[in-house]
């Protein structure tokens, strides 16, 4: 069942119920409200959101960037920087999720109030803040490199369903896509040919750099793209 009640009111309900027998419902509501704000303080605006919906599929893997565990990360939210918030990023749903202290439910952050988060070496930035042409059509941009020529990584995600022992299992399949933004326009740059085409003025120098450093567009494609772009920036 879809949960639309905010975490704030979940807090009030749980704490109010625990005090009801001793102090009465009206008194308990006042106490729990003050207790919540005393603990949450400036974090209350972050934790007041819709609960994360659980996946009902019989999954063989998870859709979270870098792992399903929460990690402490900086977050710019509602025009304020929070230096350490428990976060994880759901690639499939394109949702940034936090976990309020001592609460069962996780909270989906309001996309309209997120500026960016830094998670697992990436900057997860609100797409609305960038006016790049041909940028990926997602609410968040996964920035791999933020120099003069930003590199954007995108995951194309599908769900593969199979029947095993008369039970349906579902597996997330991830395909990486890369873009380099040149003078305000994003271009596909997942291969050597596409990437070097973006920098014709220094193609020979980049070819030599790739050869000298034995760079490959295979398993280390992301690192290779960033290394080449950074080298080009150093040549300007």
Short description:
This protein is an alpha+beta fold and 236 residues long. It contains 6 helices and 11 strands. It has helices at residues 7-23, 25-40, 44-47, 192-197, 203-212, 221-235, and strands spanning 50-51, 71-77, 80-90, 95-98, 107-108, 114-119, 122-126, 140-145, 151-164, 167-182, 185-188.
- The average pLDDT is 85
General form = globular
Number of helices: 6
H/E topology pattern:
HHHEEEEEEEEEEEHHH
Low-confidence regions:
1-33
- Helix percent reads 25-40%
State the separation between the terminal residues, measured CA to CA. 56 Å
Query: Count of DSSP E strands?
Result: 11
The main pleated sheet reads as: 11 strands, antiparallel
- Structural class by helix and strand composition: alpha+beta
Strand content: 25-35%
The radius of gyration is 22 Å
Q: Could you give the order of strands across the largest sheet? A: 1-5-4-3-2-6-7-8-9-10-11
Q: What is the fold's blueprint, element by element?
A:
Blueprint: H1 7-23, H2 25-40, H3 44-47, E1 50-51, E2 71-77, E3 80-90, E4 95-98, E5 107-108, E6 114-119, E7 122-126, E8 140-145, E9 151-164, E10 167-182, E11 185-188, H4 192-197, H5 203-212, H6 221-235
Antiparallel strand pairs: 1-5, 2-3, 2-6, 3-4, 4-5, 6-7, 7-8, 8-9, 9-10, 10-11
Helix pairs in contact: 1-2
């Amino acid at each position: 069942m879809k949960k639309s009640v905010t975490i704030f009111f979940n807090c009030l309900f749980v704490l109010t119920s625990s005090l009801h027998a001793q102090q009465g419902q009206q008194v308990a509501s006042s106490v729990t409200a003050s207790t919540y704000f005393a603990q949450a303080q400036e974090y209350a605006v972050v934790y007041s959101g819709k609960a994360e919906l659980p996946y009902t599929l019989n999954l063989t893997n998870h859709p979270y960037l870098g792992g399903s565990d929460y990690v402490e990360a900086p977050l710019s939210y509602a025009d304020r920087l929070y230096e350490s918030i428990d976060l994880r990023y759901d690639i499939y749903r394109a949702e940034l999720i936090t976990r309020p202290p001592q609460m069962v439910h996780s909270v989906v952050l309001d996309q309209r109030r997120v500026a960016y988060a830094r998670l697992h070496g990436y900057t997860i930035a609100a797409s609305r803040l960038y006016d790049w042409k041909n940028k990926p059509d997602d609410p968040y941009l996964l920035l791999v490199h933020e120099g003069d020529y930003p590199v954007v990584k995108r995951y194309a995600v599908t769900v593969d369903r199979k029947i095993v022992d008369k039970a349906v299992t579902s597996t997330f399949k991830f395909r990486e896509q890369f873009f380099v933004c040149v003078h305000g326009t994003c271009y596909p740059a997942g291969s050597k040919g596409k990437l070097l085409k973006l920098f014709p003025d220094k193609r020979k120098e980049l070819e030599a750099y790739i050869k000298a450093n034995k760079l490959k567009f295979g398993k280390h494609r992301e690192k290779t793209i960033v290394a080449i772009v950074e080298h080009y920036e150093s040549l300007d």
